[in-house]
Automatic annotation (TrEMBL):
Keyword Hydrolase: yes
Matching PANTHER family: GLYCOSYLTRANSFERASE, UDP-N-ACETYLGLUCOSAMINE--N-ACETYLMURAMYL-(PENTAPEPTIDE) PYROPHOSPHORYL-UNDECAPRENOL N-ACETYLGLUCOSAMINE TRANSFERASE 1
Binding residues annotated for substrate, in chain numbering: R184, E286
Name of this chain's protein: UDP-2,4-diacetamido-2,4,6-trideoxy-beta-L-altropyranose hydrolase
Record key words, sorted: Hydrolase
Segments forming domain Glycosyl transferase family 28 C-terminal: 204-350
A GO molecular-function descriptor: hydrolase activity
Origin superkingdom: Bacteria
Catalytic-site annotation from UniProt: H37 (proton acceptor)
Keyword Transcription: no
């Protein structure tokens, strides 16, 4: 057998091997809970798909389902529950109804190799019930709760190793720290950032949903300030935005406000802009990988430690909680960063060393090895 044919046969055998694995994701995204869970689940799901695993999503809300379908994954849609706040844990009546739905789904599979959950609406009992039907149970976590019954725990945040995670069993897998950060493929192997002398272009990104209308609040402050009113602003509109019409009015009124909707490659905008103002969460890692100097604010409890640590280590500048942002605070931090090229260069250089973009592939390879 020729070497080329032998290589082809090995590749075919590899492909056949991994098509045996059924991998189900349970994740939601909406205007209330944001799209961060969906985005990081998609990152790891794409890695499993490269290995020819059978990947299926289970999800509730319209915005999240649409995003998953956009990425060409199959979705089983659950009934919309009553739990809409997004940041509280374990609404028992909803979880009980959901478990009944999940059981019916599980019964359609002869074997479920991996069930991966990325949600805050969970409890220990929820996980314990799911474990009856699946081989391995994985959880993408942020704050070290409900990890007792998990087989595979993923927390790719810079804060993960400070949070007191422990193994409950010898065979439990823990993927902790930025080595395992679930950043998207487009942020791999980016060139070293060249920092301009002057700030001309500013990116505003407030998450996939912007439930607190921060895009409008930020623009209103910046466009009324003498030193920032003439800059070019690129505002990213997420799938779950409810305030698009107001933002379109802003864009009509101000020629220097450009709305970016249905963005295919976020890295392109990040690399083009001199400074970003961003909500906390996974987007901060993307901005770091692009070397974009960033001012961040907090919109959820699970973001607070992340934003605080990134700011303390000088990867970003923090302006605190979204509802405590004043005109004076924003303008002071923004103008100071714009004036200080050395600070922007330092932030840019630090950020590009933080995440290498290989977290998803590292995790999936180790998980597959644990299943064999």
């Amino acid at each position: 057998m020729s070497k080329r044919k032998e290589k082809r046969e090995r590749r075919k055998a590899f492909s056949l091997l991994y098509t045996m694995y059924n991998i189900l994701f349970r994740v939601d995204g909406s205007s209330n809970i944001g799209m961060g869970h969906v985005m990081r689940s998609l990152t790891i799901a794409k890695e499993f798909r490269k290995m020819n695993c059978n990947v299926v999503f289970i999800s509730k809300y319209k915005e999240g389902v649409e995003k998953i379908l956009e990425e060409d994954f199959n979705v089983i849609k659950l009934r919309n529950g009553i739990h809409l706040k997004g940041y509280d844990y374990g609404e028992e009546s909803e979880l009980k109804a959901e478990l009944e739905e999940l059981q019916k789904i599980f019964n359609n599979y002869s074997y479920i190799d991996l069930f991966l959950v990325d949600s805050y609406n969970v409890t220990d009992n929820y996980f314990l019930e799911i474990k009856k039907y699946v081989n391995r149970l994985a959880y993408i976590d942020d704050i070290n709760k409900f990890c007792k019954h998990i087989d595979i725990l993923i927390n790719g945040n810079i804060t993960a190793n400070d949070m007191g995670y422990k193994k409950y069993r010898e065979d439990q897998l823990l993927f902790l720290g930025t080595k395992y950060n679930l950043i998207r493929d487009e942020f791999k192997n980016l060139p070293k950032r060249s920092v301009n002398d002057d700030v001309r272009k500013v990116m505003i990104t407030t998450g996939g949903a912007d439930p607190y209308n921060m895009s409008i609040k930020l623009l209103d402050i910046l466009l009324k300030s003498e030193k920032s009113r003439n800059l070019q602003y690129y505002v990213v509109l997420g799938k779950g935005f409810k305030n698009k019409e107001k933002l379109k009015d802003f864009s009509k009124k101000y020629a220097n406000v450009v709305l970016k909707e249905n963005v295919k490659y976020m890295s392109k905008i990040m690399l083009e802009c001199d400074v970003a103002i961003s909500a906390g969460g996974g987007t901060l890692y993307e901005l770091c990988s692009c070397g974009t100097p960033t001012i961040a604010f907090i919109v959820a409890e699970n973001q607070e430690k992340l934003v605080d640590k990134l700011s303390r280590l000088k990867y970003i500048k923090s302006i605190g909680w979204y509802d405590e942002i004043t005109k004076n605070k924003l303008i002071s931090v923004f103008n100071k960063l714009c004036r200080d090229k050395d600070a922007r260069k330092d932030m840019s250089s630090r950020g590009q060393f933080l995440v290498d973009g290989l977290g998803g592939s590292r995790i999936t390879k180790e998980i597959i090895n644990s299943l064999t």
